[in-house]
Amino acid sequence: MLSRIARREALTALAEALAEEARSKELSRRSRKLADGYMQLDQVSSGSALSHQVLFAGELAKLASSAEDARGDAARQAAWQSEALSVAEQRFERLSHRSSELKSEIEAAQTRQEQTEEAAMARTLQGRTRRPSRKPR
């Protein structure tokens, strides 16, 4: 049961890491596109406005870079979670196989025990039905 829980948790964590990677990738793409589009605007009327425009575009580029870093982190996390899931699945399979083996062994032992008890009972009953033999004098 614990192996099933570990497997489910690993699967959930992997899905979350993959989703985070996708979100970060999309944020990076959109930020870079917005920064590129903002830098191409020709509506600058003063040096101050140009300075603010460059600062804003720079911040958008930083945001895109941070999102790209987060995407890389999420990709590493997804790889780690994938490995953890693999380990959990192997453990689950190993324990399931061992459980089946133990059940078979228990059934075989019970069968042997029943046969031994039946044989003992048969000997007991057979001994009671015999007549005592006469001893010659």
What can be said about this structure in brief?
Helices cover 88% and strands 0% of the residues. With 137 residues, it is mostly helical.
Write a structural description:
With 137 residues, this protein is mainly α. 88% of the residues lie in helices and 0% in strands. It contains two helices and no strands. It has helices at residues 2-39, 47-129. The longest helix has 83 residues, at 47-129. The chain starts with a helix and ends in an 8-residue tail after the last helix. The model has no long low-confidence stretch (mean pLDDT 80).
List its traits.
single chain, rod-shaped, mainly alpha
The main β sheet shows up as: none
In helices, the fraction of residues equals over 70%
- Global mean pLDDT: 80
Note the gap between the termini: 73 Å
Order of helices and strands: HH
Structural class: mainly alpha
The total of helices stands at: 2
Number of strands: 0
Q: Name the beta content range.
A: under 5%
Topology:
Blueprint: H1 2-39, H2 47-129
Helix pairs in contact: 1-2
